[in-house]
Amino acid sequence: TVVLEDRWRGFGPARQQVIEAAGDKSDWMLMLDGDETLGGVLTPPAGGEVVEVEERHGDLIAMKPRLLRAGVDWRYVGRTHEYLDTVGRDVRPETSWWIESHNDGANRPVKFENDLALLTLDWDDTREARTAFYLGRTNEDLGRDAEARDWYGVRLLLGGWDEELWYAQWRRAVLTLKVDEAAGAGLLWDA
């Protein structure tokens, strides 16, 4: 057993540190958080570099890369709402097992405030569209409608993923509707 200790820099950097420490000491690495459990039967992959499985949050289900071939130059992007960069990788879906998220981690009472601080650092460093989107989402979760509306507007200016753009436009319109029905209705129409 190896225990790593470092100052907290965010979820992505913590995952990156674990991957780098593991190196090629095993064939595969399972990425599992403390508030998650494994369901089904974990079967050894027949090939590929990364295995995507269902990550279940109640009724919300998304495929996420959770089993990584060791010794590969992996990179997590972002301090929170982090993702594994799998561009150009051999990704294999698997349905015999899944990850169940219980969303009861230790930081839940202050999750959104912590996320906002980490996202602000990411924005200062990268100016990435995904960060602008989550700054909008997190401000909305905190009840900061004006800030959320502004961040969704920034996200729209950056282009990119159609689904995220639609969501940002829709939420911006809904938040605008709260203060200006005519302007909000116009934005909703455009969404």
What are the SSEs and their pairings?
Layout: H1 11-22, E1 28-30, E2 36-40, E3 50-57, E4 60-69, E5 76-77, E6 83-84, E7 91-101, H2 111-126, H3 129-141, H4 145-157, H5 162-177, H6 181-190
Parallel strand pairs: 3-7
Antiparallel strand pairs: 1-4, 2-7, 3-4, 5-6
Helix pairs in contact: 2-3, 3-4, 4-5, 5-6
Provide a descriptive summary of the structure in words.
It is built from six helices and seven strands; from the N terminus they run H-E-E-E-E-E-E-E-H-H-H-H-H. It is of the alpha+beta class. The strands form two sheets. Strands 1-4-3-7-2 form a five-stranded mixed beta sheet, with no helix packed on it. Strand 3 and strand 4 form a beta hairpin. Helix 5 (162-177) packs antiparallel against helix 6. The longest helix is centred in the middle third of the chain and has 16 residues, at 111-126. The chain starts with 10 loop residues before the first helix and ends with a helix. The mean pLDDT is 92.
Principal-axis shape equals elongated
Report the end-to-end length measured between terminal Cα atoms. 52 Å
Quickly give the structural class. alpha+beta
Strand order of the largest sheet: 1-4-3-7-2
Q: Would you list the SSEs in sequence order as H and E?
A: HEEEEEEEHHHHH
Query: How confident overall, as mean pLDDT?
Result: 92
Cα-atom radius of gyration: 19 Å
Q: Which blocks of ≥5 consecutive residues have pLDDT under 50?
A: none
Assembly category: single chain
Number of helices: 6
Major beta sheet summary = 5 strands, mixed
